[in-house]
Amino acid sequence: MESALLPLITSPDEAVRNRSLDRICREANREKLLDECRLLDRFRQHSTNLYETVRALFFLHSIFRFHLPEKPGLRPDGLIPFGGYVHLLERRFPEAIETFWQSAAEHGWSGTLCSALAKAYHQLAFQTLADQVRTSVRSVPGNQWMFRLGHPKDQPLEIRPELLTASGNLFPVLTERTPVRMDLTHSAWSDIFFLGMDFPEGARVINVSVNLGIRGRDATPEPPIESFFRVIDEPVVRLVSVDLESHRDIRDLDEIFDYAADYLGLLKAALVASGLVPPGLEGSGQKLTDLLSRLVGPRRGIELVSHVRGIPKGSRLAVSTNLLASLISLCMRATGQTRNLEGPLEESARRLVAARAILGEWLGGSGGGWQDSGGIWPGIKLIRGRASAEGDAEFGISRGRLMPDHEILCPPRLDAAIAEKLQQSLVVVHGGMAQNVGPILEMVTEKYLVRSEREWTARREAVTLLDEVLEGLRSGDIRRLGQTTTRNFFGPLQTIIPWCSNRFTERLIARSREVFGEDFWGFWMLGGMAGGGMGFIFAPEVKPRAQEWLQGEMKAVKTELEQALPFAIDPVVYDFTINQNGTFASLRTGSDAILNRNYYQFMLPYLVRQDPKSLSRCRHSELQLIGEVCRADEAYRALVPEIFRRLFPETGEVKAQSSLFALLEGNGFDPVQHEQVRADLRAGRIGLAQNRLPGRTRIEDVAPTEIDDFTRNTRRTKIDRECGEAALARGEIAVVTLAAGAGSRWTQGAGVVKALHPFCKFAGIHRSFLETHLAKSRRTGQTHGSFPPHIFTTSYLTDSALRAFLASHRHFDYPGQVILSPGRSIGLRLVPMERDLRYAWEELPQQTLDEQAQKVRESAHSALINWARTAGEGSDYTDNLPSQCLHPVGHWYEVPNLLLNGTLAQLLAHQPSVKHLLLHNIDTVGAGLDPALFGRHIASGSTLSFEVISRQIDDRGGGLAKVDGHLELVEGLAMPREEAEFALSYYNTMTTWISIDGLLGTFGLDRADLANPVRTQEAVRSLARRMPTYVTLKDVKKRWGSGQEDVFPVTQFEKLWSDMTKLRELSCRFFLVPRPRGQQLKEQAQLDGWLRDGSAARVESLCAW
Amino acid sequence: MKATKAVVTAASPAHRTLPLQTLVDRDGQPRSVLEILLREIQSAGIEDVCLIIHPGDEEAYRDAARGLGINLSFVEQRERLGYGHALSLAHDFLKGEAFFHTVCDHLFISRDPDRSCARQLVEHASRAGTAMSAVQSTRETEIHLYGAVSGVLTRSTGAEPVYQIRDVIEKPTPTEAEQKLIVPGLRAGQYLTFFGMHVLTPLVMELLRESVQTARSQGGQPNVQLSPVLSELARREQYGAVVVQGSRHHISLKYGLFYTQLALALHGSDKPDVLTELVQLLARSHQ
User: Is A190 inside any structural domain?
Assistant: First the structure.
């Protein structure tokens, strides 16, 4: 058969290559698509051209993820072969793909297998791209030798003689000051390496090097990055990060390659990428002292220091890449790898430093775009992708080269006064949000490589907008520039990635328009997504007022939204100037050979604690000199009180502890139970391994006949629907939305209220989960004539925020009752046991990461195990904000809380007709009062009817099973064996239809007992004792410094709602529902697929705003 | 390019006594380093040699070279303006002719029993009719010690490949070498570095004198080097490089004299005796 899709990959004709995959797939039937998949799979196995292979892989992912599941004829349920899953985890993607294809041949095609193949192709595509970037980075001329060098005696680099001559025991200090970069066009993410290598013609950005100062704090804008290099008279590598307040004397070569062990990973990566400690020495077993002896002479060492002047993380100004480039440049200057020891770099050296920075980012397990090291170049430059040519490492493999070309723009391509004009109109801010941009970069890559119709058109438009920006820069027309960047933001960028914007940003833009009218010239998004670094362009005459206003307005909007969106810091406004030097070095010698004030502010408290006899001669001389400087220099004299403050810190910790204890007391913390749990945990009676059911437990899959299938319409469905519609009209049901959680996975432990997160635009506005659920209830009320009461369960984390939010929005004018059910149980998190950490990371199957990232992760795990040991295993976790130290004790308590806190009694008193509840998670956005399901629940007479969906590859965490013959929902952490879950066809959605009287009966209560708190309390305690308690690990973020974040795994305890199915006396049913109804949104990375597969549109169709 | 004259630089104050040291040559005869070097030059058919020396060294050098039958001229370098300046002082001696050049702290051992290293170079230069430098393939970990060249292979037949030089860089870092000095045909991490002997055209003398004048006019303490001049030569004229069949021994390095002696002995008539002694030394040192 002739493929209709392969020409889209291989045709020499660009018009054919750029045709949309989606259009062809929509027109094909299931068999035709499967035939195409077979051809594509064969092609990807034999193609020698990297980009053709990768495009085939993305085509396959797209077909299995979006197109095949839409075609009739697939089985609604299916199983994923466990062996294939293990292959996936261990990154053996081709083997996983083969296993899944074989399973399809044996058991037929199902949505389940399609999801597995989609994931496998997706991961293989990114792995192939990452491998190519890695090969290209290592192949860049000038980088290769470092990987061949395996012994200190072979180290060919020498420290320049200017740095080796001490004057009065003080070695010279080489200082590098480096600006950061702003992207004047937003490149529509075309600076992602993969994309520049696929479509170099479209990879163009205008990139400006800038000095920054924080308005109100810094007198003038300066290069924000400063780094220092000097020889020291101790045989160690001393690394100091002044802004991260971390320092270490390294004596062992292997420590240098341990990037995640501390906050000094970037400095270590710079040492390695600059060739001072070549990557070929990793694992060589050689001594660091031998290497140092070769580089700087016996009994000597090196000190490398970094300092970022208070620019918060998430600034979208590529601070970390430019810091890395600054450090690399410094080390390369020191070793004679650049011609200039001082001053700016030559063009060839800049390119080399940029290439080494890419290498350093790869070594450190991070990554940026190819424009990110733009700060080492001066002024305004056009950076372009370049087609690969003969002699390039990429030639014949990809269309573009890894490294772009940089053209420094100057008149006539640039208006002579453009720098000043920009400075007069542009207000650069950090909105305070710090988010992981990684998922967005993956989405963009995939969409571009499959040439998705709308996105590809938008990308073309973004390319033409760059020409408009260039024209604006040439003519000096800043107003026009502002119009272009705004059009870019609301047009192409949001068409390509709707998630790059958010309510915070759009509120600020709207308010700027309201307040400044015609004098607001435009918005400009910096970096991967809005909310952090951003630009607002104003008429020059209003700029000072606009700066002042934006400072206040950002703070006000942040205060309003800070429970809903992940803010890391308070918003700031920057002052900036365009830097005309690029990175720039100078040598300080003699009595000037000292570092900056911030270095001594950080290091002196540590040094004064040392025995003076233990200090080296150079340190002695340096401290004497600093003493003299302090006497003569006012700025240095101010160090003294600061040093005392650091030596004897204030007791802020005590205040935080008292606030924590107040929270515990006010939220039902049980200290006796807590101590019991701690003792059990330390004794090993409970733990992650003990969550599992006994190994002899029989876990079997459930037959389709044992559940009610709602994925197909039947005659019975019609009857159920009519029954449900009548009950809805009679007002027999209330909705209970679980909104007590902070959505740990949603914002990676940032601690926001997930219910309030404005996660998606519906009807043109960003809407929160809470508003979306109310909109569904409103639609139900409008359709059936009775607005169901809507209960949101809350916890200490979410209660006040939800109350305030609902009050400020007047319950979104919902005509029915809106009730908050506050939590009545709370736990205090514990420092985890090493045993549990090792079990989670070493015994449970884990997704192996790409080679270097995996090394970094293992290093981080080892550091965290060390943290648990030193902090005290099983001790209270109190070293964080109080709200991050507490935890809800599991969603099982949410329903009993309705009994305990009087919510159910209040509901029934107000609306006695209510007989049922629909309980669902905040993130099950498709769940709603479907009349057919409701009708079946009523007709079945069961107490609890649970909704399940057909399992897909990412549905991990248990499922519906026959446990020793009894139908139950089994949590993933209770599965006796890992593979048991893979024998289960159905996944639990948590959505439950509840008959109130039946439930009360299970507790041994009736409606009248709800007025008796003692009896109710006893009933709840009694049932709680029958529910299993699980130990879990949760990641919590600890924020510090300027938006820096650490993530710690902590231990907590939970009882889970699904375990109600274990109660043999309780009558339960299970409904198989369509995936869009049961799908939970746990991670923001899911949003794009959820939008593309039509689930978002389905949700919107259920809502009335 | 027929070279009938040679220039040997020996003016460095740090190395001025090295040529006067005595080694035992391949024939088992004790000779001064200078004498061994001059015999190498003589084997290439060159009888007129100019030695650039430190002031006051002429007598000692004449003694060290006595009885060779070579016409020796001496020029003293009175100003310390660098290696290139020292070489430029041979201008009057050369009288506009092409010349052979080497330095006094290197000795050479040919693998061809019939042709010394110098003879191989002079023959190739004569055949090509251009300036030519002897080169050898060197690991990237050692290139920071030598001048290095980039070029393309022009003749691969015969035992000694010949290249057309494109650029010359003095003591490059491996980073610079990888960017600018990759030579097709060599193994990864290997570069062509100077062997320590050249056949050069009169243009080199002109360029050296220009460099000295420029350096003087710029003030300070000039340090005129040969490599930038050779780089310029490659831009102005055809300039070749030949990989000679032999090894170079740098006697001014740490243990340089010792290693050179060892190499001479292991390539000479006393090889069995020396090897025996070495084995015994090794055995005793491990007792």
Answer: yes
